[in-house]
Amino acid sequence: MIALIAMAGLLDALRQADARVAAVAWRLQTANVAICRDIVPLAGLSIETLEQYAPAERAEARSGLGFGDLPQISTVVPGSAAARAGVQVGDELVAVDDVPVPPAQGGPSSYERTAGIEASLAAALAKPPARLTLARRVVSLTGDPGCASAVQLVPGRRFDASADGHYVQISGPMYEFTTSDDELAFLIAHELAHNVVPAARRAKDGGAQRLAELAADRSAIQMMARAGYNVTIVVPFLERLGRKRRLSWLDGTHPSWNARVAAATAEAAVWRTPGAKPAQ
Questions:
Q1: pLDDT tens for residues 35-58?
Q2: Domain ranges in the chain?
Q3: How many helices (H) and strands (E) does the chain have?
Q4: pTM score, two decimals?
Q5: d(CA 180, CA 79)
Q6: Contact (CB, 8 A) for 188 and 151
Q7: What would the CATH number be for the domain defined by 2-31+39-146?
């Protein structure tokens, strides 16, 4: 019984963390359409399937989180298109634009079914309104314009944050390192910049990549300011991050911490006051 209670608490904590990441990401993405290369309609919700959990966790996911065989809405960002349409956490998703969601697959832990449903939702939002058939009702969604990228909190022990052009991923240990939504916003915005800001796009050449990292820091500060986050935390956060030596970032692809701190200090000085200049 104690083990089951502990598991229930862990799953609930993970869901709360996912919701926090989703809310910060949505705020950044919708506030920064002016500087993003690719704009997409965002629903402001997250979907989970039972297959995302390890087989040993599924019984508790069913009893503790109310999972069935249907996909479940795990996060609804306040103020988002999904929230305005009345979508609620715990709603079960039956179909997207009248196409039934794929059946449950079972087997080992996998994100495949969830990714397929997310792709169907994205395609439906591209031709609004998207029609979501939930277990007890049907809702129509017209997404909010936002910077393209799927932002995820990922399990594991690696202390890292990454972007691959489509996804932004923040590891569990990196998430736990942040002490406020402002710090989390900087992490997400930095990786988001790699995906959506041309000057910050990742490069194979070491010198070009170091310049891209500095551009991502500057863009992150701009994104934070546009979204109403406190940019004065960036320099102290970078200094604290630089003191942590278990970083995959310290591999020659990133500038020295002194260079990052100096560039961030200059950029934050511009954006920390109300009415700061917009990005060019």
A1: 888 899 999 999 999 999 889 888
A2: 2-31+39-146, 149-271
A3: 9, 11
A4: 0.89
A5: 20
A6: yes
A7: 2.30.42.10
